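Standup notes
- DV: blocked on the single-chain target, sequence here:
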Amino acid sequence: MKVMIVEDENFIALELERIAQEAGHQTIGPVSTVEQALAHAKRSDVALVDLSLSDGLSGAQLARRLIDRHGVDVIFVTGSPENVGHGIEGALDVISKPFTDERIASALSRAEARRKDFDSSKAAF
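- DV (later): unblocked, structure below
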């Protein structure tokens, strides 16, 4: 699965990249702005998205566009999970910082299973 890392803090971005790669996924990025993320959206299956990016509190708006326009699954990874409220429709998970390797890998595993289920149900038609 192709995982886009959308995070403006370099150390966190590198940790997310390492976790995703160790879980057997290809990574795209890291990217730190909405514009960069949208440029890579067509190549991504899932995105790990922070709410606060280098171009402001733009993660929620980015997520909406990734989900609606590009069919990218979104997992929020944020230090402010309360700002997601009751969630954003279509987002798969909200993970609080600090996170564990297991928590990220588990969310990616669920995203991959969901994507496989969706793809196999499309093939049935």
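- Follow-up: The chain has a mean pLDDT of 91.
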